[in-house]
Write a structure and sequence with these properties.
The chain is an alpha/beta fold and 280 residues long. Helices cover 37% and strands 19% of the residues. The structure holds S-adenosylmethionine.
Length: 280
């Protein structure tokens, strides 16, 4: 039974963090002419109406994308992400927020292939409708973890696996770690990006240990948190693990995350992290 609906959370701090970094990964793939494939295991509906009752109920986007929208002087590194949000709001009023499938399709070249998995039937239908005219995009209403076997290695032999699980079920950390290992064994040269919530010290440490023991190549760990990391009350933020990150991401990410953190944490709580979990 799937209870998680991203419509409640679209455009929140975690979305801004993961989507801003996602654009950097896609732009890096675009540096070479050779076609590539992006596989997303947990796609959501693609485009979110921030006036929808669910988004209004939590108001999470007000502390996320709304804070960027009202600020000038954003760094150039953030431009592709902000352009993607602006493209959905051409009248200059923030109403729609693009999820990862929309951001990804916008940045990919037309002939690059996008494969989306979304298990929730209603969300999958909405996603299908959203991409009904999109060429080179396929949508599967299936468990996203089955994408690893079904799609890797892609025929292009270049690409990104993006795993953005909902973590509403306790076993997601274990399933994600298993998926990462399997993806690496099937497509060792591919890039994998995994989002995770900072849900508790022991869960994160266990997750890191399982990645460290998986025989992975160089892996960068990025985090943004806007509360203290004592884990006493809130989930303070989230992270992105990037296996086989593009050249230069370790240089781009710190100033990008620093600007995001200063904008998203006006009280100055929390911080950012950019470290090699597995160095070269
Ligand atoms: C965090 S949301 C995805 C947000 C999207 N990646 C974005 O950034 O716009 C997670 C999505 O995964 C879906 N989901 C949950 N379990 C799944 C599974 N086992 N396989 C595929 N999708 C799943 C949920 O219905 C939800 O839409």
């Amino acid at each position: 039974m799937l209870s998680y609906r991203h419509q409640f959370h679209a455009g929140n701090i975690a979305d801004v963090f993961k989507h801003a970094l996602l654009t950097r990964l896609l732009l890096a793939l675009n540096r070479k002419d050779k076609p590539y494939c992006v596989v997303e295991t947990h796609a959501g509906i693609g485009l979110y109406d921030l006036q929808h009752a669910w988004a209004q109920k939590t108001g999470e986007w007000q502390k996320g994308i709304a804070r960027l929208w009202s600020r000038s002087g954003s760094p150039e590194l953030l431009r592709p992400y902000l352009d993607a949000v602006h493209a959905e709001n051409p009248d200059g009023q923030l109403r729609y927020y693009p999820g990862s499938p929309c951001i990804t399709r916008r940045l990919m070249r037309e002939t690059d292939r996008l494969v989306l998995y979304e298990l929730n039937q209603d969300d999958c239908e909405t996603l299908r409708n959203q991409f009904r005219h999109s060429r080179h995009t396929s949508i599967q209403q299936q468990d996203g973890y089955t994408a690893i076997k079904a799609t890797l290695p892609p025929k292009e032999r270049r690409g990104l696996l993006f795993i953005d699980a909902s973590f509403d079920q306790g076993e997601d950390f274990t399933r994600v770690a298993r998926a990462v290992k399997e993806a690496h064994s099937r497509f060792a040269s591919g890039m994998t990006a995994v989002w995770y919530p900072l849900m508790g010290r022991s869960a994160i440490e266990a997750f890191e240990r399982s990645l460290l023991s998986a025989g992975l190549p160089k892996t960068l760990q990025l985090e943004l948190f806007t509360e203290s990391r004592d884990y006493s009350e809130h989930i303070p933020g989230s992270g992105l693990i990037v296996i086989n990150p593009p050249y230069g991401l370790d240089q781009e990410a710190p100033p990008l995350l620093d600007w995001l953190w200063r904008t998203l944490s006006p009280e100055g709580k929390g911080g950012t992290r950019c470290e090699w979990l597995i160095p070269e």
